[in-house]
Amino acid sequence: xxxxxxxxxxxxxxxxxxxxxxxxxxxxxxxxxxxxxxxxxxxxxxxxxxxxxxxxxxxxxxxxxxxxxxxxxxxxxxxxxxxxxxxxxxxxxxxxxxxxxxxxxxxxxxxxxxxxxxxxxxxxxxxxxxxxxxxxxxxxxxxxxxxxxxxxxxxxxxxxxxxxxxxxxxxxxxxxxxxxxxxxxxxxxxxxxxxxxxxxxxxxxxxxxxxxxxxxxxxxxxxxxxxxxxxxxxxxxxxxxxxxxxxxxxxxxxxxxxxxxxxxxxxxxxxxxxxxxxxxxxxxxxxxxxxxxxxxxxxxxxxxxxxxxxxxxx
Length: 314
What we know:
Layout: H1 3-10, H2 28-32, E1 54-58, E2 62-67, E3 70-75, H3 86-100, E4 107-112, E5 117-119, H4 124-129, H5 132-150, E6 156-160, E7 163-165, H6 167-173, E8 177-181, E9 185-187, H7 201-209, H8 211-220, E10 224-225, H9 226-232, E11 237-239, H10 242-254, H11 258-271, H12 276-291, H13 294-305
Parallel strand pairs: 3-4, 4-6, 5-7, 6-8, 7-9, 8-11
Antiparallel strand pairs: 1-2, 2-3, 9-10
């Protein structure tokens, strides 16, 4: 990696050349119940469902592969190390909306087509060309990309190979689990270029590693390599190949009830930060949403008949 590429990656900045790697307030109980839209809800919607074994492209830089209830959301801008431009942000948001609307998607895995980077963050070359007014107008588009990943209603896994810096690490933090390999380098270097993490980093990182550790990482803007990242809890699993392990993990998760998985995610997410009593109310509401479902009936029947369940997904 050249010095210029290292500086670009260290700041979470954009385009550097690279090769392609294919591969209103609500009660706690109300909040845990499925609601309209993609925000940790039931995942129902009018968008066309993904067919098993299919691929669908969203714009030029985002690809979704779908097979056996697992979606692979591929960041596919290898010429820029997956730096997130305005166009790519729109595509990410659109892909996430389609995934959230498909009840057949049980797990989503976020991967990269680049051989040395998961994502190096915002496209700072594009940002440098924007006027202040244009940057203000662009902000909701950028934010929607990160929110789209964060609010996917099914379990999500990030497969981090290479650099995941700035907004790239924020995309990983938006997932429920992060699988990395020995090439991974993560960090939130935004203060080194005069901004702050704006894709959820200041809120998601302390929830993962605690306030003091998050402050140290954000304030120093330092990069963290794979072994230390695992030790600090910045990633959850280290593997020989991040994508292979993440997809295998997703397959194991996808074998379980899709109704149960989404309800469990709601309970885990919405219970964070609540006191124990309120958190237990969130859990109870999520339990009630699945206790009388077709999946519950099938799961109990399959257990008693000593066979694999055939989940109806309702």
